[in-house]
């Protein structure tokens, strides 16, 4: 089972979000300001971005964002009935993985990247609860570029909600029972927005 260390929990108690049935931390300044733009540019250029399709009402349509998946060799990942072979770690991604492991005490062996090109790119309500992520996954989610709204809603207590702004350089950590009890999304907006890259580091069993 994956867990944050006691050391991490004590150090970051002040940025733990007051959500029941959840363990969520928002570290606003994980990537320092001067590194954000070079890192974002390197990722925009070097990541093998793909336009995946989703099935909606029996039709194949473009996913409203670009994605890529990097992981340790042999960690195949299955979704929508398809199995994806991971790409080998880019140096920038390997460095972030090590930084996150040192910070949290959790291990990561894969990263899913999302590129939201503008305000009409989005991610619908879901939990990161695929069986290969294990019981209580630690998900480390780094944001670069345009700040976007991130919404939570409780899966069973329908009046419980939370909305955050994820600024460039921020790290959102979800652990403990969060995925059992909460869904999250990145909503669309009609405001004209610049691109945003999100990286979610995970451990696949
Ligand atoms: O872009 C984000 O901040 C959310 C990404 C996400 O929820 C996911 O990749 O599972
Ligand atoms: Fe997610």
UniProtKB/TrEMBL annotation:
Q: State the Gene Ontology terms under molecular function.
A: dioxygenase activity
**Fe2OG dioxygenase domain span:** 107-205
Kindly state which keywords UniProt assigns to this record, in alphabetical order: Dioxygenase, Oxidoreductase
Mind telling me which InterPro entries this protein's record contains?
A: AlkB-like, AlkB-like_sf, ALKBH3, Oxoglu/Fe-dep_dioxygenase_dom
User: What Gene3D superfamilies does the record tag this protein with?
Assistant: Alpha-ketoglutarate-dependent dioxygenase AlkB-like (2.60.120.590)
Q: From what superkingdom does this record's organism come? A: Bacteria
Q: Which PANTHER family match?
A: ALPHA-KETOGLUTARATE-DEPENDENT DIOXYGENASE ALKB HOMOLOG 3
Q: What is this protein called?
A: Alpha-ketoglutarate-dependent dioxygenase AlkB
């Amino acid at each position: 089972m994956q867990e944050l260390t006691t050391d991490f929990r004590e150090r970051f108690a002040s940025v733990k979000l007051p959500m029941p049935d959840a363990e969520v931390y928002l570290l606003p300044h994980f990537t320092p300001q001067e590194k954000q733009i070079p890192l974002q540019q390197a990722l925009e250029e070097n990541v093998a971005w793909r336009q995946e399709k989703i099935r909606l009402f029996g039709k194949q349509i473009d996913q409203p964002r670009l994605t890529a998946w990097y992981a340790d060799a042999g960690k195949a990942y299955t979704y929508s009935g398809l199995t994806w072979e991971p790409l080998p770690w880019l140096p920038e991604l390997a460095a972030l993985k090590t930084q996150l492991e040192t910070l949290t005490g959790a291990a990561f062996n894969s990263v899913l990247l999302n590129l939201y090109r503008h305000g009409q790119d989005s991610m619908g309500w879901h939990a990161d609860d695929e069986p290969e992520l294990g019981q209580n996954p630690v998900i480390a989610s780094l944001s670069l570029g345009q700040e976007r709204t991130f919404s939570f809603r409780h899966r069973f207590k329908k009046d419980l909600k939370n909305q955050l702004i994820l600024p460039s350089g921020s790290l959102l950590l979800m652990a403990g029972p969060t995925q059992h009890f909460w869904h999250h999304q990145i909503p669309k907006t009609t405001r004209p927005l610049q691109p945003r890259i999100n990286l979610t580091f995970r451990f696949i069993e």
